[in-house]
Amino acid sequence: MEQRKIAGIGNIYANEALWRAQIDPSRPGASVTLEEAASLRSSIVAVLSEAIAARGTSFRDYRDARGERGGFVEKLDAYGRGGLPCHRCGSKLIATHAIDGRATVLCVKCQH
Asked: Does residue 4 lie within any of the structural domains?
């Protein structure tokens, strides 16, 4: 979740990429293995590509350049889903602000 090395991904897409890569967002970056880093990179590219294709993520008032709402909100697996079942394992997703003071949602069963 800390953005000093890779900035600009944003909270929504960071949550989604970490969920897809099955990485606990509270882990220090130095503890991520090369294999996990490769998985995270692939997840970041996939999430950003899908979000761009869906014209972004609209919760309230976001609109794209054409004034349309973004459709990626319907594809979210983690962000904004605290308390709901994990799409992968069915466990209840945890929402917290304890990681960098940002809204973070994770599955304690799937994300290590």
From this structure: no
Q: What is the pLDDT of residues 8-46, one digit of tens each?
A: 788 899 999 999 999 999 999 899 999 999 999 999 999
Cβ-based neighbours of 91, under 8 Å, separated by 6 or more: 85, 107, 108, 109, 110
* CA dist., res. 68 & res. 31, Å (int): 40
Instruction: State how many domains the chain has.
Output: 1
Q: Cβ(105)–Cβ(78) under 8 Å?
A: yes
Residue matched to tokens 């090369």:
34
Contacts of 68 (CB under 8 A, 6+ apart): 55
Cα–Cα nearest to 19, from 103, 77, 96 = 77
Tokens representing residue 77 in the block: 């697996």
The phi-psi region of residue 22 (left if phi > 0; otherwise alpha if psi is between -120 and 50; otherwise beta) is left
- Would you state the structure tokens that stand for residue 106, as one six-digit string? 């994770």
We report the CATH number of the domain holding residue 91 as 1.10.8.50
- pTM of this prediction exceeds 0.70: yes
Alpha helices in 22-97 (DSSP H): 34-53
